[in-house]
Design goal:
This protein is of the alpha/beta class. The protein has two domains: 139 residues, ATPase, nucleotide binding domain (Nucleotidyltransferase, domain 5); 177 residues, ATPase, nucleotide binding domain (Nucleotidyltransferase, domain 5). It has ten helices and 13 strands. Helix 5 runs antiparallel to helix 8. The protein is globular and about 55 Å long. The chain starts with 8 loop residues before the first strand and ends with a helix. The relative contact order is 0.15. The model has no long low-confidence stretch (mean pLDDT 93). It binds zinc ion. Zinc ion binds next to loops.
Length: 331
């Protein structure tokens, strides 16, 4: 086949428990258009697949790219995936078990589909287009509903002996009487420093009578508290939010220090909505905390930086997975 006739565009989808992001990419992996929808897992498998399809079709329409120009779609999923068999093994936030997602997507959208774990997708994106571009050894920490991590060693994603590496959200940072974590243990980094944990702590304190501007910012509906509202409260100097976020930064710094001590990476790279919203304010605090816990700490040894990709990390990584599958099939 001549190169000119090959389909060049791919679609990347970041399928989260709360929202679906989709984007159309050109042959140079530049974003041509983006769309966003709520996932609504309560609609069940068929309902969610329909929403993914709508989100993709709307992105294609706004980029004015026809279906026939798409070589493949990549989908990042928050859970364990079996890439070779196109299965979602387990995705707790979506309530999915051994779901043949590739088959279902291909039937609905009529392009080849590739699956990838969402955190691995984000890490690949950081390596190709973000702050990890020129690095061989780094660790990503994505701070969202939970905290996910990706480890790149010698230029390759380190998957561990059974594909379960990178659970940095479950490093224990509060050894005694720490809060219960979603994994069943107590005192994990995720239980004190994820956006989810920060929201829970703020809401619990407000319910006990603590004053906070968050109450006004969310119009009394605490389910609406997301990164944007936390960032606004933090910038306004809200005492409650500042205390809880600063605590979270200290814990993230301890987590980063542990990773630096063990792996000696060129950088620890932070991503996720809260980092995007508060950027440098949090980074300096996290660095300070890490510096206090790293052996032989120096600014070169403790390089903690923003991913530079914000919310796009997931869709870019999914697009990379789609492109890798297309290239493998052409070989
Ligand atoms: Zn945990």
């Amino acid at each position: 086949m001549s190169h000119g006739k090959q389909k060049q565009h791919v679609v990347g989808v970041d399928l989260g428990g709360t929202k679906i992001l989709s984007a159309v990419f050109d042959g140079n992996l530049r974003v041509l258009s983006r769309e966003k929808k709520n996932t609504r897992p309560e609609l069940g498998v068929e309902g969610v697949i329909e929403r993914v399809a709508e989100c993709v079709n709307e992105a294609l329409a706004s980029a004015a790219v026809p279906h026939t120009a798409i070589a493949a779609i990549g989908v990042g999923v928050p859970g364990m995936v079996d890439q070779a068999r196109g299965l979602v093994r387990i995705a707790p936030n979506l309530g999915w078990h051994d779901l043949p997602l590739v088959k279902l997507l291909e039937r609905r959208l009529h392009f080849p589909a590739a699956l990838i774990n969402d955190v691995q997708a984000g890490t690949l994106a950081v390596k190709h287009q973000g702050a990890g571009r020129k690095l061989q050894n780094f660790v990503c920490m994505f701070i969202g509903t939970g905290i996910g991590g990706g480890i790149v060693l010698n230029g390759e994603l380190y998957r561990g002996s059974s594909g379960m590496s990178g659970e940095i959200g479950h490093m224990v940072v509060v050894p005694e009487d720490g809060p219960k974590c979603g994994c069943g243990n107590c005192g994990c980094l995720e239980s004190v420093a994820s956006r989810g944990a920060i929201v829970r702590r703020v809401v619990t304190a407000m319910e006990k009578g603590r004053k906070s501007v968050v109450w006004d910012l969310c119009d009394g509906d605490t389910k609406r508290v997301r990164s944007r509202i936390l960032a606004e409260a933090y910038r306004e100097g809200d005492k409650l939010v500042c205390k809880i976020i600063d605590d979270a930064c200290n814990y993230i710094g301890i987590g980063a220090a542990n990773l630096i001590n063990v792996l000696n990476p060129q950088a620890v790279i932070l991503g996720g909505g809260l980092m995007q919203a508060l950027g440098d304010k949090l980074l300096s605090r996290i660095r300070k905390s890490a510096m206090a816990h790293v052996i032989g700490a120096s600014p070169e040894r403790v390089r903690i930086v923003d991913s530079g990709l914000g919310d796009d990390a997931g869709i870019i990584g999914a697009a990379l997975a789609a492109r890798a599958m297309v290239e493998a099939r052409r070989r």
